[in-house]
Write a structure and sequence with these properties.
By secondary structure, the chain is mostly beta strands. It has a 7-stranded antiparallel sheet with strand order 3-2-6-9-10-5-4. Strands 1-11-12 form a 3-stranded antiparallel sheet, with no helix packed on it. It has a two-stranded antiparallel sheet with strand order 7-8. The chain is globular, with a radius of gyration of 17 Å. The protein starts with 13 loop residues before the first helix and ends with a strand.
């Protein structure tokens, strides 16, 4: 068996970079926040566990997205880790320009201890309180302390994002 040939790109474009990192399978989540009486939500795969002591997680949010101001101002946010059956939800909440008010009406949710909306059919959920926010190019890296966790007793296949499309992970 021969080694795979890797094509080097010097000073890669954003398209080449997107192609390269698209080969990293990532979990798909819905991140929610509540500002006043309005729920905000977005589909995210730029999420990572940061620390076990203290419990920290990070999410990267595009600065131009309307969700950005909500998560930064609120300081409270939730993460719903999606099962493979939630492709339509992931697509809906990734749609730019969708109506802000009522965007979660078609998705069964419940309120967590912080008051943010969490998706009912999630594999697990996290509720976070922002501890830090860092500039990261055209995104903000939001770090939060995990204040609540829910784990479904119905483990199912995970929804993943790989090479520009949704897939499943058993």
């Amino acid at each position: 068996m021969s080694a795979a040939h890797l094509e080097p790109y010097r000073e890669p474009s954003s398209d080449v970079y997107r192609l390269a990192v698209g080969r990293l399978a990532t979990g798909v989540t819905i991140v929610t926040s509540r500002l006043g009486t309005t729920d905000h939500a977005m589909t995210a795969n730029a999420l990572a566990s940061v620390s076990l002591e203290p419990l920290l997680v990070l999410v990267c949010v595009e600065r131009e997205a309307r969700f950005h101001d909500a998560i930064v101002e609120s300081g409270l946010w939730g993460v719903s880790i999606l099962p493979a059956t939630a492709r339509a939800t992931a697509d809906w909440l990734a749609t730019r320009g969708r109506p802000l008010h009522g965007q979660l009406e078609r998705v069964p949710t419940h309120r967590g201890v912080t008051g943010v909306a969490l998706l009912d059919d999630s594999l697990s959920t996290l509720e976070c309180e922002t501890t830090d926010a860092y500039p990261g190019g055209d995104h903000t890296i939001v770090v939060g302390r995990v204040v609540s966790v829910e784990i479904s007793d119905h483990a199912g296949d995970a929804l993943v994002y790989y090479r520009g499309r949704y897939d499943t992970l058993a």
